[in-house]
Write a structure and sequence with these properties.
alpha+beta, Phosphorylase Kinase, domain 1, Transferase(Phosphotransferase), domain 1, two-stranded antiparallel ribbon, about 15% strand
Length: about 325
């Protein structure tokens, strides 16, 4: 029987780095371009060629976590619209391990509200779906899809899904920690502590991103805490759907939250359409959005199914 990526990774777990180290002197580090809980990210270049790179300096964590991220990037090697691991190096003084990744130009989509066309948005979302379809097919869920982890070049229309540091190998019916994803992009399954979630979490996160692009509001769902986050969802999607979801999967909701949700009938998207976004909020775009933001994680389309949606009919053949 063919072993899954998860099984191969579990067999390789240990206290040693499972990847050969390159020569740190081959690379030059320039400016810091990002930071996170587990890493600092810098721009840089390969000294011999001058080729731009990204240097992700990992903060001290268990070696198993580093091995997992490297293993995942190896599985994803040559996948479409996915940041590519080029090398792994270790600083001889600090002992910090760094991942050398390919560089991708990025335009902050918040600065492009009113400039991104329907075609642009379709190319953006389709590119991420291609990355997710490849990852999910190979048993990997990203678990932190958001605009900050999507590199978009408005000029070339190139898109790349980056930062696989929270990604995990997926085995059906297994339990996973829910303290993943970024607050405003968490799916209902995470907010309600459903441990047996699936790669469909990534579809929800991308749906939140699509909503932000269509309605010029990022983040789209913005609550102060988990309960308010749930309420923000139900303003548009309806409280009954959340109540049914909690009952179906035996998830706990406080009586006060239940009462508030029962009053939310769901307005969907009509009230969010105005002169600034009318051209991009096509019926096809709104239909895809509704499907991706399905509260029940088991009823969302897969990445491959979403790629077949009519919203992408105009651009599908142009994507290589």
């Amino acid at each position: 029987m063919k072993k899954t990526s998860a099984q191969k990774y579990q067999e390789s777990e240990g206290d040693e780095l499972n990847y050969p180290l390159g020569n740190i002197d081959d690379y030059s580090v320039n400016n810091r371009i990002g930071r996170g809980k587990y890493s600092n990210v810098f721009s840089g270049h390969i000294i011999d060629s001058g080729k731009p790179i990204v240097v992700k300096v990992l903060k001290p964590v268990r070696i198993m976590k580093i091995n997992r991220e490297i293993a995942i990037l190896n599985v994803l090697r040559n996948g479409p619209n996915i940041s590519q691991l080029l090398d792994v190096v270790k600083d001889p003084d600090s002992k910090y391990i760094s991942l050398i990744l390919n560089y991708a130009e990025n335009n902050d989509v918040k600065t492009l509200f009113g400039k991104m066309t329907t075609r642009d948005i379709a190319l953006y979302i389709y590119g991420v779906l291609r990355a997710l379809a490849f990852a999910h097919k190979n048993g990997i869920m990203h678990r932190d899809v958001k605009p900050g982890n999507i590199m978009w070049n408005q000029t070339t229309k190139e898109v790349s899904l980056i930062d696989w540091g929270l990604a995990e190998f997926y085995t059906p019916d297994s339990e996973y920690q829910v303290r993943v994803a970024t607050k405003y992009y968490k799916g209902p399954e995470l907010l309600l502590s459903y441990l047996k979630y699936t790669p469909s979490l990534d579809i929800w996160c991308l749906g939140c991103t699509l909503a932000g692009l269509l309605f010029h509001k990022l983040p789209f769902f913005k609550g102060r805490d988990s309960n308010e986050q749930i309420e923000r969802m139900c303003v548009y999607l309806g409280g009954q759907a959340m109540l049914d979801y909690a009952e179906k999967y035996d998830l706990k909701l406080s009586s006060s939250l239940k009462a508030r949700l029962s009053e939310l009938k769901g307005t969907m998207w009509a009230g969010l359409i105005n002169e600034s976004n009318r051209d991009i909020c096509t019926p096809q775009a709104l239909d895809l959005l509704t499907k991706m933001l399905t509260i029940d994680h088991n009823l969302r389309p897969t990445a491959e199914q979403a790629m077949k949606h009519p919203f992408f009919d105009e651009i599908r053949d142009s994507v290589k």
